[in-house]
Amino acid sequence: MLYKAKKFDLSGLKGISDQTLEMHFKLYxxxxxxxxxxxxxxxxxxxxxxxxxxxxxxxxxxxxxxxFEYNGMxxxxxxxxxxxxxxxxxxxxxxxxxxEAEESFGSYDIWKTDFVGIGKMRGVGxxxxxxxxxxxxxxxxxxxxxxxxxxxGYTPVLVMDVWEHAFILDYKPAERAKYIEAxxxxxxxxxxxxxxxxxxxxxTRRSRxx
Length: 210
Ligand SMILES: [Fe+2]
Fold this sequence. Notes:
Elements: H1 18-46, H2 56-81, H3 96-105, H4 108-119, E1 125-131, E2 138-144, E3 155-161, H5 176-184, H6 189-195
Antiparallel strand pairs: 1-2, 1-3
Helix pairs in contact: 1-2
The structure holds fe (ii) ion (FE2).
Fe (ii) ion binds next to helix 1.
């Protein structure tokens, strides 16, 4: 087995029930399992050292599914890891995250407006704040399903699942804003801060436009 599902101790979150989390952990475990299954099937095709013409349709489908299952696994790990019991509140004003948010957006509040705005977008996917490791800039993105919209090489810093399964046991489909509020009341800002590279770790910090 290539990957093992991780365990997350998150019971007692504010506004996200244990029942939701248990269901969500099961879904996550499904992504881990499917990632392993796909890798095994791909390995079996590669075993004889070639991808035959008649294997190509199956091989192509397995590879396409891999992007969905793999990102489903990894994004859930980021998501569960950036939540904690008794988390939430605002990040510390002098934290590396807030400094980068101010540099990239003008203020933490504008960063948050953008991130929350993405979270409210119609459709199934994720709101993700990434850091560009080259410039240090934070950048918020919408990711459709699990795999469309991830920026290559960027580091996920704060990851919010906005598929309906993330909140449907606790809120109505039209109440996504309440779930987003609940999400923010449980963010582990220490973990988020650890994901952010400080200026010293960005030796080539520069504008991409330059
Ligand atoms: Fe999810």
